[in-house]
Amino acid sequence: MTIKHLAARLVVLLIVIWAAATLIFILPHLSPGSNAVSPLEREFGLDQPLYRQYLVFLGNTARLDFGTSIALYPTKVSTLIRQALPWTLGLVGVSTFLAFLIGSLAGALLGWPGVPRFVHFLFPPLLVLSAVPYFLLGIALLFIFAFTWSWFPIGGASPLTSFPEWSFGYAWQITYHAVLPATSIVLSGMGFWALAMRGIMVTVASEDYVALAEMRGLRPQRIFLQYGLRNALLPQITALGLSLGYIISGVMLVEWIFRYPGIGFLLFGAITAYDYFLIYGVVFILIVGIALSTLLLDFIYPLLDPRIRYSKH
Questions:
Q1: Quick one: pLDDT at residue 134?
Q2: Which of 83, 137, 158, 239 has the smallest set of CB atoms within 10 Å of its CB?
């Protein structure tokens, strides 16, 4: 990638972040409950004109200073985000990776000719899972495995009596509490990625280069991995970048259902308490994360397909 193309993408990234930050500043002020914090207006600067609040907000945001939480005063917003962010990164990162990997592989097998017949029995359940939102699947898993059978905890990220420490026992407690929310994300996302990959692989399997590879007598495994799966992954990566916002919004609802102490749970609490500064900080971090992830996927494209180059040559 040339310096010119890199600079252009960074400019677009900054414009997207600025536009989104402006939008999240305006929307909370349109809420009918915006005067619920009137006793603290002077202390937090909410008695100032809207344009002055906006300029102060942009300046503070550029320094990643989101002020003090109104509902959890005097805790800093940055402190709350720093405490919640690792939980969301662990849950979203692992769950999304597993859903994308398992779903893409299952869809590739479903769309590739010559696979064993039993593989096609995966299509109906994957079709059903792709239509179920994260939070509905999470509610069903919570009712069955937590309320009815009591196999897993109802919510939280660790037992209330536990103390955070670097130990195998505490790591196991975190994993045990994350099973249900992670499973709801993996199952729902897996169906979506499987159906998308199946359609792409059906098209790739009919390409001339696949027929040429078969005529050359290459091993079926090599044709599937190198000629089929690799070429079908690029549209999947593009879809992953475009759907990051949907994934994050679904995960936030899952966190609220399972009382998982991540960014989503923090954001819902801030919305119900009309905690403007916490809303600003959380949503801004989410926007930056999605924008940076999309930019990173843009850089990964040439690694997946060497024919892609961001230059005239």
A1: 80
A2: 83
- Distance CA(209)–CA(226), nearest Å, equals 11
Q: What is the pLDDT of residue 294?
A: 79
Those residues with Cβ within 8 angstroms of residue 295's Cβ, 6 or more apart along the chain or in another chain: 9, 13
Topology at the third CATH level for domain 86-271: MetI-like fold (1.10.3720)
Question: Which DSSP symbol is given to 225?
Answer: I
Q: Rounded distance, CA 233 to CA 192, Å? A: 14
pLDDT (0 to 100) of residue 36: 47
The tokens for 107 are: 């869809």
Q: Taking the complete model, does pTM exceed 0.85, yes or no? A: no
> Cβ–Cβ contacts within 10 Å for residue 180, how many?
25
HSE-up (13 A, CA, CB side) for residue 106: 25
CB-based burial, 226-249: b 16+ in 10 Å, e otherwise: ebbbebbbbebbebbbebbeebbe
> Rounded distance, CA 149 to CA 147, Å?
6
- CB contact at 8 A, 76 and 68: yes
Alpha carbon distance 208, 26 (integer Å)? 53
Segments of the chain assigned E as strands? none
> What is the pLDDT at residue 306?
62
Contacts (Cβ under 8 Å, ≥6 apart) of 125: 191
Give the integer Cα–Cα distance in Å for 150 and 146.
4
Distances (CA, A) of 234 to 13, 84, 191, 197, 204: 22, 32, 18, 10, 12
> pLDDT, tens digit, for every residue of 85-102?
888 888 888 888 898 999
The answer to whether residues 51 and 281 touch, using CB atoms and an 8 Å cutoff, is no
Residue showing tokens 């040339």:
2
Q: Which residues of the chain have pLDDT under 50?
A: 34, 36-37, 313
